[in-house]
C-alpha cells in the first residue's frame, strides 16, 4: 500500500480494512507507531490509554478463547459499556444501516442470508486475518472526557499506521467478549477493555476492502458564525 504523504492524505486514504494478507508485522514496526501515537493530546495530559499488542501465539490464544466463549454462549454480553444507544434515531440509524448494506452488497450477500452476514461478522474475531491485534483499555473510573481522549489516541495510531503503509480496522466487536479478552491478556480491574484493532497489510484484492463509506457534508454537522 502507498505511504500517505500528509496528514490530510492519511485521513482520506485510511479506511477500515476487513481482509488482511498474512504478511507479518514486527514488534519494532508496532512500537514505532505507538511512539508516534503517544504524542496525541489528552485533557490534562492524563494520557488515559493502555494498549495490549498481540501477535503469534498470544493472538491465537485470544482468538481461541473468544471462539470457545462464543461456542458456549453466542448471546453472552461481557461489554463494559453500551456500544450504541439501545434504539438509534435519525440520522444515525440510516447511516449505520447504509454502511451494512453497502458492505454486504460489495460482498454479494443478500439481506436475507443471515448466516453469510453472521459469517462476515465473525471474521472480527480473527482480526480479519491481520497478524497483529491491539486492544485499548481504560481505567473504569474515567469519564466521557477521557474516553474521548482514548479515541483520539486510537485515531492517531490508525493514521500513523496509514503513513507507514499499514492497514487497520477498529473493532468494537470484541466488546461483548471484553472479559474473555481481559482474562487472556491479564488485564485487571480497574482497567476495562474498550476496543480492538486489527493491524497488518490489507489484501488489495479483497472486495470488502473496496468499501468507501459515506460521510455527511460539512454543512450537515458544522455551524459557522461571525465570519
Ligand atoms: C471505535 C470504532 C469501532 C469500530 N468497530 C468495528 C468493528 O467491530 N467491526 C468492523 O468491521 N468495523 C468497525 N468499525 C469501523 C466503522 O464501521 C468505520 O470506521 C466506519 O464505517 C467508517 O468507515 P471507514 O473506517 O472505512 O472510513 C469501528 C470504528 C470505530 C471508530
From TrEMBL:
Cofactor (UniProt): FMN
Name any one GO molecular function. Answer: oxidoreductase activity
Database matches in InterPro entries:
Nitroreductase, Nitroreductase-like
Q: Which UniProt keywords apply?
A: Flavoprotein, FMN, Oxidoreductase
The record's Pfam families line, in alphabetical order, gives: Nitroreductase
Q: List where the protein spans the membrane.
A: none
Looking at the record, the residues that make up the Nitroreductase domain are 11-201
Which PANTHER family does the UniProt record give? NAD(P)H NITROREDUCTASE YDGI-RELATED, NITROREDUCTASE
Which protein family is named in the record? Belongs to the nitroreductase family.
Protein name per UniProt: Nitroreductase
User: What is the scientific name of the source organism?
Assistant: Marinicauda pacifica
Amino acid at each position: 500500500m502507498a505511504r500517505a504523504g500528509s496528514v490530510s492524505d492519511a485521513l482520506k486514504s485510511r479506511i477500515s480494512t476487513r481482509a488482511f494478507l498474512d504478511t507479518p508485522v514486527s514488534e519494532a514496526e508496532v512500537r514505532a507507531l505507538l511512539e508516534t501515537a503517544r504524542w496525541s493530546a489528552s485533557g490534562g495530559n492524563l494520557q488515559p490509554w493502555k494498549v495490549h499488542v498481540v501477535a503469534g501465539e498470544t493472538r491465537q490464544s485470544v482468538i481461541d478463547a473468544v471462539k470457545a466463549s462464543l461456542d458456549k454462549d453466542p448471546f453472552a454480553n461481557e461489554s463494559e459499556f453500551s456500544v450504541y444507544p439501545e434504539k438509534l434515531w435519525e440520522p444515525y440509524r440510516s447511516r449505520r444501516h447504509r454502511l451494512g448494506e453497502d458492505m454486504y452488497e460489495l460482498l454479494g450477500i443478500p439481506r436475507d442470508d443471515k448466516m453469510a452476514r453472521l459469517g462476515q461478522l465473525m471474521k472480527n474475531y480473527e482480526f480479519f486475518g491481520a497478524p497483529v491485534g491491539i486492544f485499548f483499555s481504560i481505567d473504569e473510573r474515567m469519564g466521557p472526557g477521557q474516553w474521548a481522549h482514548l479515541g483520539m489516541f486510537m485515531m492517531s495510531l490508525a493514521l500513523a499506521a496509514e503513513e507507514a503503509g499499514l492497514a487497520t480496522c477498529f473493532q468494537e466487536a470484541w466488546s461483548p467478549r471484553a472479559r474473555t479478552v481481559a482474562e487472556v491478556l491479564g488485564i485487571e480491574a480497574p482497567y476495562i477493555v474498550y476496543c480492538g484493532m486489527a493491524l497488518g497489510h490489507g489484501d488489495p484484492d479483497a472486495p470488502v476492502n473496496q468499501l468507501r463509506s459515506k460521510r455527511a457534508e460539512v454543512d450537515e454537522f458544522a455551524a459557522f458564525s461571525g465570519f
